[in-house]
Amino acid sequence: MRARTFTESGRRAQIVRAAIAVIAEAGYAKASFSRIAKQAGLSSTGMISYHFAGKDDLLKACVTEIEEITGAFMQPRIDAAVGHVAQLRAFVEANVELVGEHATELRALIDLVKNAGSRSDAVDGRLALFEEHFRTGQAAGVFGAFDARITALALTTGLDAVVATAAANVPEPAELTRIGRELADLYVRATAPESTGGPE
Amino acid sequence: MRARTFTESGRRAQIVRAAIAVIAEAGYAKASFSRIAKQAGLSSTGMISYHFAGKDDLLKACVTEIEEITGAFMQPRIDAAVGHVAQLRAFVEANVELVGEHATELRALIDLVKNAGSRSDAVDGRLALFEEHFRTGQAAGVFGAFDARITALALTTGLDAVVATAAANVPEPAELTRIGRELADLYVRATAPESTGGPE
Amino acid sequence: MRARTFTESGRRAQIVRAAIAVIAEAGYAKASFSRIAKQAGLSSTGMISYHFAGKDDLLKACVTEIEEITGAFMQPRIDAAVGHVAQLRAFVEANVELVGEHATELRALIDLVKNAGSRSDAVDGRLALFEEHFRTGQAAGVFGAFDARITALALTTGLDAVVATAAANVPEPAELTRIGRELADLYVRATAPESTGGPE
Amino acid sequence: MRARTFTESGRRAQIVRAAIAVIAEAGYAKASFSRIAKQAGLSSTGMISYHFAGKDDLLKACVTEIEEITGAFMQPRIDAAVGHVAQLRAFVEANVELVGEHATELRALIDLVKNAGSRSDAVDGRLALFEEHFRTGQAAGVFGAFDARITALALTTGLDAVVATAAANVPEPAELTRIGRELADLYVRATAPESTGGPE
DNA sequence: TATGAATGAGACTTCATTCAT
DNA sequence: CATGAATGAAGTCTCATTCAT
Fold this sequence. Notes:
HTH-type_TetR-like_transc_reg (chains A, B, C, D); 8 helices; DNA-binding
């Protein structure tokens, strides 16, 4: 059985899932109404226009759907972590771990966000979240004195790339766990306070 | 007169430059032969098909052209640096600095790579370069024991995002320099050996 | 509550009134079942198809509805006039006066008749009425020796144009009265006997 | 050989003529790119989009084309007339006479103007021309004291209706001449000064 | 080389109508 | 009666590509 979030139901949800599948497999550029209709088992593209105001509307619904799925997976794990560093690590590891369960959705989401143009509240939100997280952590003394915005940008996009690569060719669960730990280590190192062990 | 690399000449080069301009300004999705022809001052798209085997061929030529331009700027700066860490820093700083001189080309390149699908020799090459650089640096003891491939992937894409953001809204030269230094610092921290930092 | 003629009732009448409103506001070409359903507060176009055999059927019902409304207004005024000339004048003045009370319906009617194609019993009827009126008036010596058909055609359509113009931007009642009088004067002049003004 | 005005040439003109034919025969509403392409012997509607910026552009070109044709016929006849009354008569008669040579174009033009929405410079121009003609004629004492605007509106649209009717079922040339004379008589009567018929 | 014309496919959207519930 | 879904056709428009000149 497919996962289904509470915001969608019936044909509308079916179309959204078909769109996600097409975007994940064929890419954003090839995700035409024709392909999506075929994937959804619909006889015409008119049905999509019937359920959605336009292509943007459908794509937004896809993003919303995926974010609900990913949020349901990641949020508890992030909330379970205590402290700024642990939460950073939890976010990274949860995101990579997610590849094991929702590779298709993640591939679609990343492609959607890449080609979002302007309408990317989601990415902007995450970026702002990271930036704010860094700032409060810096105030608490658990992060170094780096530029919060630049760092947030570099680390979130780097995370996306690792996730995308993993999603394109899903590895074993153990390897996935290792990748998440590696990346989290990297980010923890990158954001650690200067203090003692600073070489060079 | 615009810089002209040795691989392109005459109309072909003119079309490539027009394509780069269109991609940078209107985005990959809107970069049709029509727009490119108009930008190039051509009265028909036929000339583009005459000079290029197809759209892919033209886009590849764009990537090649941009890489030569960026390479000419970055390579000397990288070569001037001595040691693995310094070269990593030089690469990052040069890439950010490049925004000041070739924002258009960088915007186009990033859009091109985003929508590359599979055929991204350039990105794969840079990724392999970073990975190899990390491995030899690790052997030399100047980098930590991280996973070279994952780290290369995260850091190169993070760098791209920072460059793209800067290119989309080019800041003052001084600010550009600061951003490069910040990012380089971040990456050096992220890749540094754990405890007794061994210099080189 | 809106006026309701005896031929229509319930949902059917509601749809007809919605259609009239849409045609008047958005124009014949934009009067799709979707728009009409929305205007009628219906959630689906299915109800329209249920109540009407097809689009033509609905449009005919609109014409009928409007004609009853306009007839109820104009007929008493025409009947009150005595003599061919006075009746001509009464028709013209009543029609223009009608703009003050049923501009929406008149705008819709004119648009409907314009795009009638062939099935315009209403217009044909009025044309025949005028023609016959002119003929009997000529026999009575109160009209000149003009061609009744050509004159009827030119005057009825000219009247429509004046009404349409007034309905599109409804003027003050006094101005409306003046326009009606002006136009009636014009038509009386145009149809008067040549030399010795024939009384009646 | 078909008439061809100097503003159009080649395929563009061919498409315009096809569009005019389709509008005249099938009506404005049915004049889709598909029908026009078929009429023009084109294999696809893309060709129309290639030559015209959009449907509006094509329709405007049709109007322009027809106006050149009609203008070439009518203008000399109007210019040959001396005096306001004679020119009014010349305009009416020339317009009706035109049915004998360009019925198709006239039917198309009338349908185009009817569905013009806003972009009807042509009709507005003619209306203004009539209105101004009436005003100057009134100042010269050859027209009565009627409202120039209302009269212009009623007479021009009445003329259109007579022309459209004739064009839909073209009568013999002699009958055409008679219709023109009848209508001109009507209009001259309608606009004549009240009492002492002052000629010119 | 260069042009302009032509093609055929495919894009998104809207429409009137039908039908099961 | 009423709804919402579904259909299939047709609409305008853009695209990459080809070809004769």
